[in-house]
Structure formats: structure tokens, C-alpha cells
Amino acid sequence: MFQGTCAGNSASPRGLIFQLTDLMTQLSVNVLDIGFGTGTLGRMIKANQDTFYWSVDGVDGFEPNCYNQTLFNDDIYRNVWHGLAQDIPQELFAGYDVICLPDVIEHLDRDTAIELVRYILTNMNDNARFFISTPLWFYPQDTIQEGDLEKHLIGVPVSSMMAMLPQMYSVNNPLIGGFIYGKVSLDYADMFSPVTNPAFSQEQGQAIARAINFDCTPGKVTRLQYE
């Protein structure tokens, strides 16, 4: 029997997903919430009048999250799996319109994080969107309960995220960025380069942001166009 209580809240700018206005005219939208935790993103989607009809599936590596009876009672997630996103069959994975990785990547070791980002970009369909959020510095956080995967193992410089050419981005305090990518970002996946040094501070993250003219205004959505 699994042990532990549900966990997984963050300061992720999850509202960025509601900027995908073109999807709100579709009759059917399928979402995969990777590392869904306590179901915050799923609840946001179901509570929004423009997205309540979206179908949301969840996968999480912390087993107690997958037995959260409240999520089942409230009909938040259509399907829930315990395990890794990489274990979802490719043909099923390709059926999602939006793949979400909100404040998960920093809990993985560097090699696994790089592998997961490439896996998502490789296996999502040509019209899908990839939403990822993460602290843009090495945000210190440790394990709370055994097996909860809460410890932070990497920090991701904003220069790395921007080098993958996002369609849009937004930031919440304390310097936590959310980014939307399309399939074209697969060509730039090698630019994703996390930092393992815990000394990578918020001040350093902000300095990098200033150096590349990244807009850190909390809550502002910046849309990008490339030649």
C-alpha cells in the first residue's frame, strides 16, 4: 500500500494556458497534465468558462497523487496514471492538443530533464502546444515526505528557455517562467541546458533575463514572432 499525502503546488503561471485562444473554438481539446500534483491545473481548466469542456488526463510519479479521491469525485481528470510521461504509448501521446509540464522539470536530474523535453517535442503532434513552467534559477526546495519528488535538482536559465523559440511567455514571482512551444521548437531542443549548481541564484537569473531583454513583469503575457 502506498504511503504519503498528496502534494504538488507551485507558483507556476498556469494561466498562460488560457492564452491558447485558437483552441477554444475547437469542439474537442485533449490535455495531458504531467506531474499534476493536487490537480491545480485541471481544476483551473474545468472552472474556466472557455475551457471547461476540455478533457484532461494526468500522469504523476508520486503515487498518492494518483489516488486523490477528491479529484475523482469532482470529475477533474478523465484518466490518471502513476508513472512517467515517457511510458505513455507514442500513439496515445500524439493525441493530445496541449501537453503541460508545470513546475516539474526542476525536480528531475539534468539528463532526465533534457530527455523529457526532447521526448515531448518529438512525440507531440505537429499542431500541439507544449506548456512548460519552471523557476529561472536554482530555487531551493527539499523533500517533504519520502518519495514525494519535491526536491529541486536543477535550475534553468531563461536564455535556455528562450533559445527554444517559445510562442509566448509569462512570469510569476519569484522569477518563475511559463512558456508555450510549438513543434518547431524540436529543432532547437539541444539549446535546453539546465544548471546543476545550487549557487545559481535568483539574482543571477534576473541578470541573465536583463541581458537578453526578457520581460519579467509579473503576469504580463509576451507573444513572440520570428522571421
UniProtKB/TrEMBL annotation:
GO terms for molecular function: methyltransferase activity. Coiled coil: none annotated. The keyword tRNA processing does not apply. InterPro entries: SAM-dependent_MTases_sf. GO terms for biological process: methylation. Keywords: Methyltransferase, Transferase. This is Class I SAM-dependent methyltransferase.
